[in-house]
Amino acid sequence: MKTVFSSTEEQEQEIASLVTRFYESVFPKYFTESEILHFREIGVLEPNQSSVTYLATLRDAFQVMACLQVLMSILDKQKREDFMEPESEKLFQHNITLLNECGIFFPFYYDHFSSINHEANNEMQMMDIQVANQYLV
Q: What digits encode the pLDDT tens for the residues 5-15?
């Protein structure tokens, strides 16, 4: 018999916040709006429904949070330096593997983020964002 601790509500909220940041800040730099909408439809960065791998344990929640933060950090560093060090690429792939092992669907490789999509950056201005008020001027 093995005892595990369930993830906290705050951890689940942090994971949701990190996923939102991926969709609102990271993906728009590399993909078009239609591609991002497709990612939402297929459940990218959502627990894999066909697998019970992600059991929402304390360990898994920490693992998922750390992986998402590391991926964002590597992509941010790459954006500033315009190239990827081999060690960073290995770390990137390792974190993708860990996410998938935790049951979080992330079907990308480093190559998907190797160059900034300027068309996607132009479309980023048109992405759906939450407005501060309900009135349009």
A: 888 889 889 99
pTM as predicted? 0.77
3-state secondary structure of 106: coil
The two tokens of residue 59 are 């360990």
pLDDT digits (tens, 9 = 90+) for 21-65: 999 999 999 999 999 999 999 999 988 755 555 557 888 999 999
102-132 burial by CB neighbour count: b if 16+ within 10 A, else e? bbbbbebebeebeeebeebeebbeeeeeeee
Backbone angles phi, psi at 54, to 5 degrees: -80, 105
Instruction: At 62, list the tokens.
Output: 């920490």
Alpha-carbon distances of 20 from 26, 84, 89, rounded to whole Å: 9, 25, 23
| DSSP symbol at 5 | P
Take residue 133 and report the two structure tokens written for it. 């008020």
Does 124 or 116 have the greater pLDDT score? 116
Helix (H) or strand (E) holding 38: helix 33-42
Other CB atoms within a 10 A radius of the CB of residue 22 amount to: 20
CA atoms of 38 and 62, how far apart (whole Å):
27
